[in-house]
């Protein structure tokens, strides 16, 4: 039987935890920054692209949705978007912006991450479903990247942590 070597090093004599504990608390911060910046950028990119928000024409959300309709996993979802392509474009862009800002600030982080996961899921089932092999479509990877944040939230460097700390001080407990 093999025994692992203990690598825990205490950071402070007052019981502040180990380096491993600190690393575990910080592990999701780079993922939050990457996903937050990416989704803010994606939302702003769509909102500032006049061609994208049109119902038809080169580079429009309408033409993109019509092009992927027959190869998507859920054509009914594409049909729903095609009822108002520009409305769908604005909904996706504003959703990406809200998700990105919430993720970067760590405000309602689990809800923001769930929103990001749902956006990524809908894009995977429609726009990138036909990618062959499947790993060429980035929406599945984004979906998987959101899941740790859905599960863990933003326990460090976040407005959620600040609000949680204030509640604890006010109530005198660990709620």
Please characterize this protein's 3D structure.
The chain is an all-alpha fold. The chain has helices spanning about 20-25, 30-45, 60-70, 75-80, 85-105, 110-125, 140-150, 160-170. Helix 6 packs antiparallel against helix 7 (about 140-150). It is elongated and about 55 Å long. Mean pLDDT is about 90; it is low at about 5-15.
Tell me the Rg in angstroms.
21 Å
By oligomeric state, this entry counts as: single chain
What is the terminal separation in angstroms?
A: 42 Å
Structural class: mainly alpha
Count of helix runs: 8
Strand content: under 5%
Look at the structure and give the mean pLDDT: 89
What percent of the residues sit in helical stretches (DSSP H or I)? 55-70%
Secondary structure layout plus pairing:
Blueprint: H1 19-26, H2 29-47, H3 61-68, H4 75-82, H5 85-105, H6 109-126, H7 138-152, H8 159-171
Short structural description:
By secondary structure, the protein is mainly alpha-helical. Helix content is 63%, strand content 0%.
Features:
175 residues, elongated, mainly alpha, 63% helix
């Amino acid at each position: 039987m093999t025994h692992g070597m203990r690598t825990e090093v205490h950071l402070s004599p007052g019981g502040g935890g180990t380096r491993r504990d600190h690393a575990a608390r910080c592990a999701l911060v780079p993922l939050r920054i990457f996903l937050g910046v990416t989704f803010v950028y994606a939302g702003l990119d769509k909102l500032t692209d006049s061609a994208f928000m049109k119902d038809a024409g080169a580079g429009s959300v309408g033409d993109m949705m019509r092009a992927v309709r027959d190869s998507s996993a859920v054509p009914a979802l594409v049909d729903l978007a095609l009822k108002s392509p520009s409305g769908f474009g604005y909904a996706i862009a504003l959703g990406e912006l809200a998700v990105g800002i919430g993720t970067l600030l760590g405000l309602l982080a689990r809800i923001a991450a769930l929103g990001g996961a749902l956006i990524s899921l809908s894009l995977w089932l429609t726009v990138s479903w036909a990618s062959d092999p499947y790993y060429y479509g980035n929406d599945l990877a984004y979906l998987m990247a959101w899941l740790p944040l859905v599960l863990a939230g933003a326990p460090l460097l976040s407005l959620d942590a600040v609000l949680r700390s204030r509640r604890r001080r006010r109530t005198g407990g660990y709620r």
